[in-house]
Amino acid sequence: MAKDGEELKGFAVAGVDQKFYWAKAVVKGNQVIVSSTDVANPVVVRYAWANNPVFNLANGAGLPASPFRTDIWKGITQRP
């Protein structure tokens, strides 16, 4: 659920090309479903993964979710 009752913020997805795009996210049961019209076949998701992220996912007690990512891709400042 969104802590502020608004649309979920802070999610991005990428395909195998490793290009990230902002994504829409909705809570269904105990899962967050993430999608983007810019990524036909998402393979990874990141949440609040930025230096100063804007995010609002929280649990039932109102505690915020921690930033996370599902990939292990090297960042632009890391050597291959």
Please give a structural write-up.
The structure is a single chain. The protein is mainly beta and 80 residues long. It has one domain (11-69). 0% of the residues lie in helices and 29% in strands. The chain is built from no helices and six strands. Strands 2-1-5-6 form a four-stranded antiparallel beta sheet, with no helix packed on it. The protein has a two-stranded antiparallel ribbon with strand order 3-4. The radius of gyration is 13 Å and the shape is globular. The protein starts with 10 loop residues before the first strand and ends in an 11-residue tail after the last strand.
Q: Uncertain spans, ≥5 residues at pLDDT below 50?
A: none
Radius of gyration: 13 Å
The H/E string reads EEEEEE
Number of strands: 6
Q: For the largest sheet, list the strands in their spatial order.
A: 2-1-5-6
Distance between the termini: 37 Å
> In total, how many domains does the architecture comprise?
1
Kindly state the mean pLDDT as a whole number? 91
Share in helix = under 10%
Structural class: mainly beta
Strand content: 25-35%
Outline type: globular
Query: Biggest sheet, in brief?
Result: 4 strands, antiparallel
What is the number of helical segments per DSSP (H or I, 4+ residues)?
0
Could you list some keywords that capture this structure?
single chain, mainly beta, two-stranded antiparallel sheet, 6 strands, about 30% strand
SSE order and pairing:
Blueprint: E1 11-14, E2 20-22, E3 24-28, E4 31-35, E5 44-47, E6 68-69
Antiparallel strand pairs: 1-2, 1-5, 3-4, 5-6
